[in-house]
Amino acid sequence: MSTATENSQARGVAASFGRVGVLYGGRSAEREVSVMSGTGVHKALVGAGVDAHLFDTGARTLAELAAEKFDRVFIALHGRYGEDGTIQGALELLGIPYTGSGPLASALAMDKVMAKRIWLHEGLSTPAYAVLGAGADPAAVQARLGLPLIVKPPHEGSSIGVVKVERAEDLRSAVEQAAAFEDTVLAEQFVAGRELTVAILGQGESAHALPVIEVVAPEGKYDYQNKYFTDVTRYLCPAELPQATTRAVQQLAVAAYRTLGCEGWGRADVMLDAAGRPYLLEINTSPGMTGHSLVPMAAAAAGMDYPQLCIEILKGARCKVSAARPS
């Protein structure tokens, strides 16, 4: 096929998307990252010939979104009001096709406690945990889970509010730190080992994993700063793992994704213990698309550049809730 023919086909695909909105910014604690993601996606789509327009859901209203008459939208929002099913529900009501998972899957994946309950029910491995509400006794949690353990707010991403507790005397302050973000706090058994992440594309039986990435952060601190604003974290892609381990990690990630009903794209974070057993930490249904982000990195290892990835995700945009029809 000639280059001219390929370019013509690419322009035809870009035109078929119509007027595209890139939803970014938002009102969550991850707004800064979302601005970077959305800006990158918008630039890539425009460069590919798509009629794409940025729309900041943190600064503009749903009425303004409806007035834009977008034919479909690319969700580049992270965290609350963008990754938790709320914007997805609004888009269903407005009848605007959108990328990624639907309202229910988004809400389940965003709620780390509910996700863990479902995974455990389905026999998928995830660290033991406890939920701490108002008045909970941190000492009882320590007795149950041991030390070290991880304390985090169940509805935040990008490692916001996450604390590793190694000493009993630090547990209460860690719980208070996480509780600054929401009323309940998730305490999770710490799994020592290798930190892995698996990007996933597609839906249902067609969902498939991209190459596994190993994250090697300084002193094991893959926090907000080291995720997005430094170059000291190393990423090994594909991760240097035995073939059987790679398959097991990918299969677990895809199973976790399918079990929650995710679609379009996502990313599963996994810990691999010293015995080579993988444990699910969480599923991100609208992962980062910044210069430091992991889904573009995995896609590149699979032979798909950043603009191609954006186009592939955009192709899957659709409304997920079928309208009830009177008989």
Cα distance, first to last residue? 50 Å
CATH superfamily of the largest domain: ATP-grasp fold, B domain
Overall residue-averaged pLDDT value: 89
Domain count: 3
User: What's the architecture of the largest domain in CATH terms?
Assistant: 2-Layer Sandwich
Provide the low-confidence segments as ranges: 222-229
* Rounded radius of gyration (Å): 20 Å
Largest sheet: 6 strands, antiparallel
CATH topology of the largest domain: D-amino Acid Aminotransferase, Chain A, domain 1
Name of the top-level CATH class of the largest domain: Alpha Beta
Number of strands: 13
Secondary structure: helix percent: 25-40%
Assembly annotation = single chain
Strand content: 15-25%
Helix and strand sequence: HEHEHEHHHEHEEHEEEEHEHEEHH
What overall geometry do the principal axes of the alpha carbons give?
globular
What structural class do helix, strand and pairing data support?
A: alpha+beta
**Helix count?**
12
Protein name: D-alanine--D-alanine ligase
EC number: 6.3.2.4
Function: Cell wall formation.
Main location: cytoplasm
Description:
The chain has three domains: 3-99, Rossmann fold (3-Layer(aba) Sandwich); 109-125 and 192-314, D-amino Acid Aminotransferase, Chain A, domain 1 (2-Layer Sandwich); 129-189, ATP-grasp fold, A domain (Dna Ligase, domain 1). It is 37% helix and 21% strand. It contains twelve helices and 13 strands. It has helices spanning 3-16, 31-47, 62-67, 86-94, 103-110, 112-121, 138-145, 171-179, 224-228, 243-259, 294-301, 306-315; strands at 19-24, 51-56, 72-75, 129-132, 149-152, 163-165, 185-189, 193-203, 208-209, 213-216, 234-236, 263-273, 278-284. The strands form three sheets. Strands 8, 9, 10, 11, 12 and 13 form a six-stranded antiparallel beta sheet that branches. α2 (31-47) packs across α12 (306-315). The longest helix has 17 residues, at 31-47. It is globular. Residues 222-229 have low confidence and may be disordered.
